[in-house]
Amino acid sequence: MSNHETSETKPEVITLFGATGDLAKRMVLPAFWELHTRGLLPSDWRLIGNGRGQVSDADFREQVKESLAEFGPGEVPTNQWGEFASRLSFAGGGFSVDDPGELPAALAEASAELGEEVQRIFYIALPPVAFEPTVKALGAHDLMQSARVIFEKPYGTSLQSFCALDELVHSVLEEEQIYRIDHFLGKEAVQNLHVLRFVNRMIGSIWSCAAIEQVQIDVPETLGVADRAAFYDATGAFRDMIATHLFQVAAEVAMEPPLSLGTEDLQRARDQVLARFRPLDPGEVVFGQFDGYRELPEVADDSTTDTFAAVRLWIDSDRWRGVPFLLRSGKRLHRSRQLLSLVLRAAQGPFPEARRSVLQLSMSGAGELSASLTMKKPGPELELVTVPIELDVTALGGPSDESLPPYASLLHDVIVGDRSLFTTGAGLEHAWSVAQPVLDDPPEPLPYAPQSWGPKAADELTDGVGWFTQA
Ligand SMILES: NC(=O)C1=CN([C@@H]2O[C@H](COP(=O)(O)OP(=O)(O)OC[C@H]3O[C@@H](n4cnc5c(N)ncnc54)[C@H](OP(=O)(O)O)[C@@H]3O)[C@@H](O)[C@H]2O)C=CC1
Ligand SMILES: O=C1O[C@H](COP(=O)(O)O)[C@@H](O)[C@H](O)[C@H]1O
């Protein structure tokens, strides 16, 4: 598993395709600043922003400063800004097979400054439709040699488009050069799953169908989609969250213990369990669309895009036979949470009033852990009471202060060449195969009121247990 030491100090030149975009501003550029201020970038580095327009270096630096003010730490003190800013530049004019724009010259200039031994990183933070032309252009202009290439998600939008993209990517890159991002794998709390489960026997020993009745991975969001309606309308909640992030989290939860925490063993363990995911049955999927969605600019009047999706997933392994994994996410819901709930079977024994216990892990921030236990209520009667036990990891101090936001953590992994928290082609092929029946035969989205918990039909997927996020 990645740690936060920069073990490789080779100078790096990072090209950020889509540098003027939403993701760059909100996540990627603040992540660079975070790594810079923590001393986690190599001793020498350059970041070249790329886009179709012409942006001067000075204007690009100003844009970066503004994005740090809005989405990063706030106003950057002048005495810290100059050194960082001097490493930023912009190569405009786009980048295509026919016309590479200013990028090759900018890369050559950076190499001249940093020496020929530079490590090149290309970050493709572009809309999915631009992935293939950009990869073709990187191949055509011979820039891929020993480069590392980061692909944003979604990497493919169906089984067929995934296969076509991956084939193209492999025609110019070795698998070791490819870093397919799923930023949920970079979340501190998701990584903590390995530790909780493989270090604490108390937790590891309940990790199977013998004790667990149901697993819920629930990411409701109050957030809307107005800022990225065009992208969202072509994507929907199922692709945006379920078939991508939540499948990967489900794989982290359900994997068999890897032989080691090395890249190959971890990726293999994740891929092996993804191969056991049963293709989804559209009859066990609920789609929703919030009222008012179709009135948003850039959304078609008759759009059938899902802004909510809930699925019941089955994993055909001995460990998880018969245990439903319930995955849910949606926009403009009642509350934002990122919660993993392991619902334990009610104990059999002398107490007729058996109750379920739940072990919950928040996937956001450093992650809080909570559990519920049933105890005897103090008093003369034998009365049972279920009490929550909560562990706020941020209250531990020290290590939690060192946690990196997921984009910074994954970017750092790319810099040091650690691929363990990135998805593989084989794993994504399984994931898209599991999703494909729903893409072929999507359920009609049911309307729901903004600020609600989505369509009631999604509650039925829980077989009367209910969504713990709503409790
Ligand atoms: N935004 C988010 O919150 C998240 C986004 N992602 C993923 O990150 C990627 C980028 O997302 P986001 O930044 O929101 O996207 P944007 O729509 O903001 O696009 C990013 C930039 O790409 C350039 N661009 C747009 N269309 C094209 C095109 N057809 N060909 C070449 N360049 C183009 C534009 O720059 P210019 O005009 O300067 O050329 C634009 O500023 C996507 O794959 C998305 O799925 C993943 C997680 C979250
Ligand atoms: O990739 C995406 O993730 C975000 C949720 O991510 P988080 O960083 O808030 O955990 C989601 O809102 C967005 O729609 C999706 O594209």
UniProtKB/TrEMBL annotation:
Belongs to the glucose-6-phosphate dehydrogenase family. The lineage of its organism: Bacteria, Bacillati, Actinomycetota, Actinomycetes, Propionibacteriales. Keywords: Carbohydrate metabolism, Glucose metabolism, NADP, Oxidoreductase. SUPFAM superfamilies: Glyceraldehyde-3-phosphate dehydrogenase-like, C-terminal domain (SSF55347), NAD(P)-binding Rossmann-fold domains (SSF51735). It catalyses: D-glucose 6-phosphate + NADP(+) = 6-phospho-D-glucono-1,5-lactone + NADPH + H(+). NADP(+) binds at residues 18-25, 52, 153. Gene3D superfamilies: Dihydrodipicolinate Reductase, domain 2, NAD(P)-binding Rossmann-like Domain. Catalyzes the oxidation of glucose 6-phosphate to 6-phosphogluconolactone. Pathway: Carbohydrate degradation; pentose phosphate pathway; D-ribulose 5-phosphate from D-glucose 6-phosphate (oxidative stage): step 1/3. Residues 16-192 form the Glucose-6-phosphate dehydrogenase NAD-binding domain. Coiled coil: none annotated. This is Glucose-6-phosphate 1-dehydrogenase.
